[in-house]
Amino acid sequence: MIAITACLVNTALEVPPAEPADYLRLEIRMDTDAPRLLQGQTPTALVRWQTLSPHPFLATDRARIALAALLYGRILFAHEETRAELFQRVQRAAEKLADGEPTFPVERWRLQAGGMSFPIWPWRIVNPTELKSPKVYIATLIGREDGSRLSIQLDMAPGLERMLAPASALIPLVTLSKELDAQDRRRLGNVLRAMNKYYGRAEASAQLFSEVAAFSLAQPFLVDPTKSGFEAREAILSKKDADFIFSRTKPEWERDSAKFFATGWHIKEFPSDQGTAILATDPARGIGVMVQPFYRNDHDPPDAVIVRNLFPVGILLPMTDELKKEMQATAQKDLGPLYTVHLIYSSTGEKEAGALGLTTRIEVIEFVLTRKN
User: Fold this and answer.
1) Cα(59)–Cα(62) distance, rounded to whole angstroms?
2) Fewer beta carbons within 10 angstroms: which end of the chain, N or C?
3) Which of 30-38's residues contact partners 24+ apart within 8 Å by CB, and which partners?
4) Please, are residues 129 and 9 in contact by the beta-carbon 8 Å criterion?
């Protein structure tokens, strides 16, 4: 089930704030052996990943994508001198990765500054014994205990930032792309493209914590539709949930509606003379569901109920007429002969999504339900 069945009835009315958590650590060791660099040799590096605690809904490789993307965004913010060039190079490589390239392709790059030439790319990945005098950058993926509000903590060794800062963003992206399967490589490309789309231009990344906002727009690309219940061919509505709503009069719905959603969802009420609409959003995954019953009086069940399921663009399968018919038929079969179901599909702009507390343009799967007396 997609949205309603994910919001299992829960009697808890207050949601305590989630505790912070550290999920993943990335260590980048970059060789700064001066004789080698002066001789024009390709610099060497080592990458290590360490899981600190499992993320609630991102598999290990998806969490690695998240941390690598946040590191890219943080380096854009922190290093003005290479910001524009790094932005453009990552954009070109991300486009190719999203289109099916087997690795993250980065062109050779040297920075001319102060009469010197700094080798930014390429780097050669080696084992620890080959590193002579490495400088270490450590990035940690942090967030709330429920998996939401992902961000990064970055510790950068001082010195040679002109060379090491942009390289520290590229090294994990390139090495990670070689370790991911084809589907996750495309996800990595799409996440980076979405972040750059949020920025619009490199200069926009100069704002503090801009990488967190940019990643929140891109995070839906990391959600697995099947594992997270977003498979559009599955039933999007359950008979148990429909029975819950249609069994209540208007005063009973006003009393019980907040109990309809599971702990961890953010609840917002929209009072109406016909019955209060309830919007629940899951900030960790950027999805939402709105339930709107329509009552004629205070003592009869509702005449109709509208259930709107809200998904960031890119989560659902491409919506076709055939798929809409299949989804409506599946919902009708699951609800049984007592109910009549009509499906309406639409999409909204970013402004409308923002008004609902979501971070990006959304797709809406709306079910209009009526019940036979």
Assistant:
1) 5
2) C
3) 30/123, 30/134, 30/135, 30/136, 30/137, 30/164, 30/167, 30/168, 30/171, 31/130, 31/131, 31/132, 31/133, 31/134, 32/133, 32/134, 32/135, 32/159, 32/160, 32/164, 33/132, 33/133, 36/132, 37/119
4) no
The Cβ of residue 88 has, within 10 Å, a number of other Cβ atoms equal to 12
Residue 184, pLDDT score: 92
pLDDT above 90 (res 37): no
Cβ 345 vs Cβ 365: under 8 Å: yes
Over residues 38-94, the pLDDT tens digits come to 667 888 999 999 999 998 888 999 999 999 999 999 999 999 999 999 999 999 999
DSSP string, 274-306: T--EEEEEETTTTEEEEEEEE-SSSSS--SEEE
Q: How far, in Å, CA of 47 to CA of 132, rounded?
A: 15
Strand 109-113, strand 116-121: pairing: antiparallel
CB 39 within 8 A of CB 33: no
DSSP reduced 3-state for 273 = coil
Say how far residue 282 (Cα) sits from the centre of its chain: 12
Measured distance CA(307)–CA(364) in Å, rounded:
10
- pLDDT score of 19: 59
How far is C-alpha 105 from the geometric centre of its chain's CA atoms?
24
Helix (H) or strand (E) holding 179: helix 161-179
Reduced to 3 states, what is the DSSP secondary structure of residue 351?
Answer: helix
Contact present, 46 and 29 (Cβ < 8 Å): yes
Tokens describing residue 338:
């007592």
What pTM was computed for the model? 0.63
| pLDDT for 270 beyond 70 | yes
What is residue 207's three-state secondary structure?
Answer: coil
Strand arrangement, sheet containing 44-51: 124-125, 44-51, 20-31, 134-144, 151-156
pLDDT reported for residue 4: 32
Domain edges within the chain: 20-222, 239-371
Closest CA to 131 of 217, 253, 30: 30
Label residue 325 exposed, middle or buried (CB < 10 Å: 0-12, 13-18, 19+): exposed
